[in-house]
Design brief:
The chain is of the alpha/beta class. The protein is built from 2 helices and 14 strands; from the N terminus they run ααββββββββββββββ.
């Protein structure tokens, strides 16, 4: 009987201790690898609008979200905070559990680092309204879970690669206000519901797979023709004829 009563009263205390231990571990846990990558990225920037306390958990930083166990950074949102210059390799590209990355409306320049191909869990990428240049990197077409890709309002050049079709889950593709050239690829992403390549230097016939999008998705490309724009070989005044 003594053993029975002893266990009867001790077990609740053991359970409470276990719960406290789990909670304490959760509070104290830290995505150390991701934290160092973020600090390396911030050290490359001249902005004074992002002030992360290196002594605190990265999960408490403005613009940073961690998973439930506080083991990984899953979201980084720093829109319009005055980021300037290129994104160095071995910084953001190391956040391999990242699902959302938004660095829109800054002054980031250069090319997108090739190690972005490591962001295999990425669902949404917003780099719009920056100063990026160069061709659309094929590394982005390796992100199989990507649903929304916004590179609009930059200075990207070259053609839009056919490899964009590798993004089977893509629902939104925004490439407006760049300097893309060449023909539009036949894009067959069946889930694509938002699409915009307006104000580039594209030419040729709009593929039938994209002809269901409104004219506003294509305007500003003087060489583009076909539905929903003018028929090829017809000058603008004849478009309504």
């Amino acid at each position: 009987m003594a053993v029975y009563f002893r266990n009867k009263f001790i077990i609740p205390y053991l359970c409470l201790a276990l719960v406290l231990l789990v909670l304490t571990h959760r509070v104290d846990s830290e995505p150390a690898h991701d934290k160092q990558a973020l600090l390396s990225f911030l050290s490359s920037q001249a902005t004074n609008r992002v002030r992360w306390n290196a002594s605190a958990s990265a999960c408490t930083w403005a613009g940073v979200e961690c998973d439930a166990t506080r083991s990984f950074v899953i979201s980084l949102r720093l829109p319009g905070v005055g980021l300037v210059g290129p994104i160095p390799a071995n910084t953001i590209g190391k956040l391999t559990h990242l699902r959302v990355l938004s660095l829109r409306s800054n002054f980031l320049t250069g090319q997108i680092p090739s190690d972005f191909s490591s962001l295999k869990q990425l669902r949404s990428l917003y780099l719009n309204t920056n100063l990026f240049f160069g061709e659309l990197p094929l590394s982005l077409t390796e992100l199989a879970h990507l649903k929304r890709l916004d590179l609009s309002r930059n200075s990207f050049t070259g053609s839009i690669p056919f490899a964009i079709n590798n993004l089977k889950q893509l629902t939104g593709l925004f490439l407006a206000n760049n300097e893309f050239t060449g023909n539009l690829p036949i894009i067959t992403a069946v889930q694509l519901v938002n699409f915009n390549v307006s104000n580039n230097n594209l030419e040729g016939m709009i593929p039938a797979t994209l002809s269901g999008f409104p004219a506003s998705s294509f305007i500003g490309n003087v060489g583009l023709c076909g539905k929903p724009l003018c028929g090829c070989g017809r000058s603008p005044p004849q478009c309504g004829a």
